[in-house]
Amino acid sequence: MFIRRGRMGGRTPLVASHLPITHKPTPAESAQHRATKERVVETAARHGLLSEAEVPLANRRSITDAVVTGPSGIRIGWEIQYHHLSPSSVHRRSVNAVEHGITPLWVAKDRTASLIDRAPWARVDDMPWKDIADGKDMVIRGGYRHLQVWKCVPSSDRHCLASEGAGHCGAIHADWFLPALCLPEKKPVHIEDLVLQSATGESVPVYVPSRGNGRAGRHRWVSADDRALWEEIVGERTPLPSAPAEEDDGVITFAEQEIDRTCRAGEEGWFLSDARPLRDLGQPTGGFTLPAMPVRGAREAMRITPVERMAASAALRCPPWELGPCAGCGQLMRRYGRYAAMYCRACRAVLNGR
Length: 354
Hints:
The protein is α+β, with helices and mostly antiparallel strands and 354 residues long. It has helices at 27-46, 87-99, 129-133, 191-200, 224-234, 306-316, 345-353; strands at 2-5, 12-17, 50-56, 63-69, 75-80, 103-108, 121-123, 146-151, 172-177, 203-209, 217-223, 252-253, 288-290, 323-325, 332-334. 22% of the residues lie in helices and 21% in strands. The strands form five sheets. It has a five-stranded mixed beta sheet. Strands 1-2-12 form a three-stranded mixed beta sheet, with no helix packed on it. Strands 8-9-13 form a three-stranded antiparallel beta sheet. A hairpin with a 6-residue loop joins strand 1 (2-5) and strand 2 (12-17). It is globular and about 75 Å long.
């Protein structure tokens, strides 16, 4: 039996809960943890990177499973976490690592792991320890994304982020996608790729705050080029968390109710001991939209900011110097260079219809 904080109707009461054992150490699990740690260290050594296992931090408050150091001094602290860990522990250990110049990289195998989106993370398949030790492919299933930028027009293969229906707003959208959902599809990222790229700076962590809730957000690993483009588009740079954050900020109350001695085993309904919800949903999140350029007259000069030009270049997949206004609607398009045209696809469709 445990006493914990619940959440009911905006209040945070103290409640009694009969929770199942969330983690029971087994020889197979410890071997799985050890095999993953050894694979990270061996991969780093094979690429000529400095790597150490079971590294205590300077203040001795925690021990990192493995620390990989890149050529430029980037230090990545690998935390293999295959069992449940409280959100506060994840945040505290991550902040402690950042304070000592180490970028934390948490590895999970469960889509319900509480560490997901609370620190830079990666999710792999639940594999037997022998497969891990024998070098079987360990694909990063979650935690690594690619930035996709597209113009919201009828010919686009992507849906509109601004409208709930199937319409098109004409703006430029940017969002993060798993490799398999990219257009064109990207190659999957393996754990060996992340060991090398995170240490060399080719892959970097990024924190994307939620537009609806400033306290919420998502951590992910991305390519350095994608992060640079994203920061230019949104105009902000959000560092890793540097201070502890409480999971529940509500007022703790006590309802002075009689103890319920009835056994609830087998009853239907929601209880505090129910399984944890999925946190790694694999859906694109954290999208950003640049507003569509206003329609201009034939004699009006075209005004475009450097950010709009860069985003349009990424969306249209052409160099910035090949961009220009459509002769019909005035929106940015591939106006110059090879495969260029005077009218965008929408305007050409209208003209051909005449």
